[in-house]
Description:
Layout: H1 34-37, E1 40-41, E2 44-49, E3 54-60, E4 67-74, H2 76-97, H3 113-119, E5 130-131, E6 134-139, E7 143-150, E8 157-165, H4 169-187, E9 198-199
Parallel strand pairs: 1-8, 4-5
Antiparallel strand pairs: 2-3, 2-9, 3-4, 6-7, 7-8
Helix pairs in contact: 2-4
Amino acid sequence: MSDPTPPPGDLSGFQPSSPPPPPQQAPLSARVPEKVARGVFTTGQVVLDGPKEFVVDFFQHLTRPHQVVARVVMTPQTISELIAALKQNIENFSKAFGPPPVLPLPQPGRTNLQELYDNFKVPDDMLSGVYANGVLIGHSPSEFFFDFLTGFFPAAAVSARVFLPAGQAPRFLTALENGMKQYKTKMSGQQPPQQPPRDV
Length: 200
């Protein structure tokens, strides 16, 4: 029997006979919208921590114009899960293919955050980013992929798909770990040390 229908305009006290079931899809069965299915390739990442959430910007600077190709917003809890999952994937990658190639360190004297974003414009339709409360990570011998997910009813879905070179995975992990350390320092009431943007 279907749930009773409340009178039009009056939802006070209305409750369905049973709460909606949680999504049954595991991350592997998440829907992939057409607009994110192709994914984006990133050559650098910046991790920004705020009082309530983290913002991870994925850059592409192989060709001009330099641009932010994806912006993903996550809670600290999701960032912690991302750190653990990426660490495990790097270990699995190393067992299968050897350690990821070591990339040259960034040049010293990196620009500050404002100067960085003067060079990497964020498109208007990307200013608010996309939300994710889960992530699926995989790898080939040369790349890692990240499917950032939402697990909302009625179906889990991919909100962003990002590819990055295997050699950047350890540096991305370090940036995430540093961001989490700084967040915890802020939340403890201590004054965090001044650091340049955590770009990799």
